Each structure stands twice: as C-alpha cells, then as structure tokens.
Amino acid sequence: MKKTAIYTLLTAGALLTSCQKDFIDRPSLSGTTTGNYYNNADEVRAATSTLYSGLPWRNYESRAQDAIGDVMSGNMFTYTDTEYLSFSMSSASERIGAAWGAFYKIIGYCNVMIKTFEEKKATGGGASYLDPAIAEAHFIRGTVYFYIARTWGHAPIITDPGATALSGNFNIPRYLQKDVLRFAREELLAAEAGLPESDVPGRVTKYSAKGMLAKLYLYEKDYANAKTKAEEVINSGKYKLVSDYNGMFTKSAMNNNEESLFSIQHQLAQDPWGTGNLKNPDRGAGCLRTAEADAWEMYVPSLDILKEYEFGDLRRKWSVMEHGWTNPAWKPQRVNAPKYNAFMANGFRYDTLQPVADGGNLNAVRANIAKYFAGPGKSFGSDAVLGQNSGNNVVLLRYADVLLIYAEAILGGNASTADAKALAALNQVRSRAGLMPKTAITNDDILHERRVEFAFEGDFWYDIQRQGYAKAKAIIEKQNRGTVTAPTYVTNFSEDRMYLPIPAGEIVQDPELAKDPVPYYK
Prior knowledge:
single chain, mainly alpha, Serine Threonine Protein Phosphatase 5, Tetratricopeptide repeat, two-stranded antiparallel sheet, two-stranded antiparallel ribbon, 21 helices, about 5% strand, globular, disordered N terminus
C-alpha cells in the first residue's frame, strides 16, 4: 500500500491533512482538538462538503467507474482498458488500485468525521447541527461499503483507524461479503434515521438513504424491504423524471435536479485536480476537440449496447452520437483548418463519411458517448469546458433507478407480473424514452430497461453480477465486445471473475488480505 496524503478535513478556513500508509486512514493524533472547531453549523457543513466533492471520488469516477461498470459489463469498448473487455484483470490493474484507494480514502474521511463529531457532542457541541452531519457521514460510508461489497466481495471493514493505528496491528482481514453488505445496510439505516426530510440541493436527505437502501435490499434479493423503501421515496413526491435526459449529464445548470438523489459535486475548475468532472475528454469525439475542450474518445459505446436499444428509444440519441447525430448549437472552430471550420459552421453533425481532418469521425465502432460530454466549449456553443474539466455532477443515484427497483421488487423473483404499480413505475421510465408501455414484465424486461436507462453510468456490471454466475456467464458470452471489423466474444468467463482481485500492493503490506475471509459479526 502506497504512502499517500489521504485524510482531508475542511474546517472553518483550515485544511487539515495527515499521511498514513495502508488503507487505514486516521486523523492526526497531535495538535488538533475539537475544542476550536465545529462550533456552528457552517463549520460542520464545510467539513461534510468534502464527502460530496470530486476530490476524494476522483480516482474512482475517472476511469475506474467506466472500466468496472461499463467496459466489464459490455456497454463500452476501449483500446486502453482491454483487460476489462476480456476479463483478464489482474491484481496489478491500475483501475482496481485506483478504485480501492478512492473508496478507502472516502471511508477514512467518514471515519474521522463521525468520531470527531461524536466527541464534539460529548463535550457540549450542538446536536442540532452535529447529528445531521454524522448521518451524512454514515450515508457516504454505507454507500461506499456497498460499492466495495459488490466490487470485491469479501473486504476489510475499518471504523476506528485511530485505534487500529495505535494498536500497531495493521493486519486487517477480509470480512465476508454478507457482513460487508450488512455493515453498509446498518450505516444507511443510521443515515435514514438521522438525515433531514429535505435540505439544500446536492445534500443527501432521508430519502437519499431510503433510495440507496432500496438498491442494497434489491441486491440482497430482499424484495419486501426493497419495495418498501422505494415506495417511500415514490410516495414522498419529492422527485420526478426530468424531461431533458441528456441535460442531466451535460448541462451544469441541471446539477442537483429533481431526479437526483445523490451526486458527486463538481465545479468548473482545473485546480485542484478533480474539482471538475474529468469524464469529458475520455468520451468526447475527437472531431470535437478544440482550444477549450480536450476529446480523445478513450471509451466508446460497444456494438452490443447499440443493438440493445429498441426502435424509437430516445435514450439512444440522448446517450450516443452516431452518423447523422446533430447539435446545431455547437460550432467548433480550429486555427488554420478552413475545411473543418466550413463543415462545422452551421452546427455540429456527427459524420462517418467526412474526412477526419475535415470534421468527420471514424472510430472502431462508428459511434461516441454523448453522456457526460459537455461539448466543445463555451466559445463554440456548449457548456463551458476547461481542457479536461467540465462542471457536471456525476450522478450515483437517481429517481429512475428507484422506479425500476420498485418494479423489480414487486416482480420479486417471479417469472412475470402484470401488477399495476410495477407497470406504472417501469412505464414512467419508458414513457420518457418515447416507448410504448408494457402490459406485463419479466426480469429480462427490467434488466433491458436498466441497461439502456443507465448506460455509461457505471452501474450495469452490478446488475449482471447480481443475476448469479450462470446467468452472468450467459449474458457476457453472448456479447460482441469487438469492433465493426473484428467481432470479439468472451468464451471462458469463469466464476472467479465475478469480483475483482484485491490490489497486489495491499496484500504485500497486509498478507491477511490474501487469506480466507472471516466473519465481522460474532
């Protein structure tokens, strides 16, 4: 495990950091006390704002999220993270190490905040502003452990890094996945109990916790509780599907809209690195690279996801650029490029026949991802972009997910259902996409809907995984994971590929991680 600066706490005007090897983050044990800090709501909320920032989430959401959630699931093609296409990932994979580091870094933030705020309360601090902050930290910690349980299966659980560090025993075992999931669930229940009914846009609420609990219960196949929690979100009336689907991901003015239950918060900035959304260049078509916006199309849609869209599904053009796709407002221009400038003068058109040097685009799958690509820059008719950075939030839970969770929970493992409430929930999502309503639904119908609704949002791998090994194998081995000229299929998907290996460097420092998992709960 590398030595990294891993602990950041925002205080009133102060930035406190400490360094500690391992994934065991802990607060500084010298100098700083709670006596001079966290004396009012503004100071406490300044601290918890760190948990939403792109800074701690950066190494997950930038590329690891794409490689794990979409390349591995067959939604994306790439020439860079090819091991995720072929399921040949090793413990030395850069994306695996990046995701692990980001998740335990965030957990470290949560650990120190919970401990610090509890100590502040014990010495007379105001419960009215400390309790909601503690609940926020529980929400984030529970959410991250939910990701960890789905990504690695068995994994360490760290709650008191200070005590661990002082003990001198850094040999932390892996705990059983069911216990990691239980821990995540208990964290989210604590968040649900302590969070307010509403808050300023971007802050999580009681209903954010209910929504994430619904997702976790569904993963555990606890359909009754998944249905209950999803229904509570629906009945609250606080959320709705927004009409501008593409704008959720490409317009900073739509950050924290009425569909968002939890999003990583970004600002249009290059410094510090990670403040801005870094997905823009990895998805942007090369023909849209300008003096303001980088675009190198590292990830593109897979041929298999393109086949998944039903005829007339509006989500296809909202999510994918293909031949003929247009945006009349975008008018990129380049220095000393008269043919390019003439081609773009009346608005952008995605064209696979036009010469590439003159504004055309011809990649291995003949398509690019539109989600999270903000555009060529403000001077050229799009949202503002600063090189690799846009100001768009990364959405981790939205109302469409709650609706589809609700429908699936009512289905409850049965072959099909014509339940009116299940159909109403699923058909809301289909209606926005311009599709005819279903009159009965199966698990495959819901899985299809989830795939196209959340394409390129880093979620579909977990949907495949929770189907169980046999069905996951059938799904994966049926997918074309290649290019227009070279179709490619996985033929040897094995059960050990259902979860990622723990990073090699972590095992070197903590050999217990290579051993069989043990129970966390006695």
